[in-house]
Amino acid sequence: MKERPILFSAPMVRALLDGTKTQTRRIVKPQPPANTVEVGTWHHPDEEDGRGPRFYAWESRPPTRGLFIGGDWCQPCPYGQPGDQLWVREAIRLVPDLEPDDATGRVFSVYHADGALTVADAWPWKRSYLPPMHCPRGLSRVDLEVTGVRVERLQAIDEAGAIAEGAPHYQEGTDAPPPDGNPEWCWNYRSAYMRLWHQINGAGSWDANPWVWVVEFKRVNP
């Protein structure tokens, strides 16, 4: 079992804490060759090096596929394999309006996602906001166990996948208005996830339809 860090934005941290997020999709880097129709695992002696199963690019689907394509394109999942653990890195900020505790000298800091106090008793950083990539292991409050890994096109996500991603669902007639005033986003979870992907990865990122790692997990701490 190996342990790796993984970054999540504030909305996704809240979904993890709520128990509504059990999947994450991350862009495969580098992408498989352009004529790839499927990316899947294949037994290879290199798997015994501890890096986990390798994923290969195929130009046709089973049972007719022949040799894999792409030359040296062969990737283990950078997020691990089933049984491995991920610890969540999230943003943390100092609370400047709370004075240090007189008895202990503790300086207060909170998680940006929900304002919950961290366990830190000091703030050694020279800035008041700590982005997710700098979150130390000792302040991570969410541990995940990988339960499944696969590769697919981004747009292959369905309603069940979007729900498992923790995508928000906007409905007409509720207190949550359609984002950007666009009622199209109210139709389903997949549309909400598409909007979320745009927000994180930029304009045109959904239409590019990249190959993505689909990492399924369960939370292992309360």
Give me the secondary-structure topology.
Blueprint (H helix, E strand, L loop, with lengths): L2 E5 L2 H9 L4 E5 L10 E4 L12 E5 L10 E8 L8 E5 L2 E3 L14 E3 L17 E2 L12 E11 L5 H6 L24 H13 L9 E9 L3
Parallel strand pairs: 1-6
Antiparallel strand pairs: 2-11, 3-4, 4-5, 6-10, 7-8, 7-9, 10-11
What does this entry look like structurally?
The chain is α+β, with helices and mostly antiparallel strands and 222 residues long. The protein has three helices and eleven strands. The strands form three sheets. The protein has a five-stranded mixed sheet with strand order 1-6-10-11-2, with no helix packed on it. Strands 3-4-5 form a three-stranded antiparallel sheet, with no helix packed on it. A three-stranded antiparallel sheet has the order 8-7-9, with no helix packed on it. The longest helix is centred in the last third of the chain and has 13 residues, at 189-201. The protein is globular and about 70 Å long. The relative contact order is 0.21. The model has no long low-confidence stretch (mean pLDDT 84).
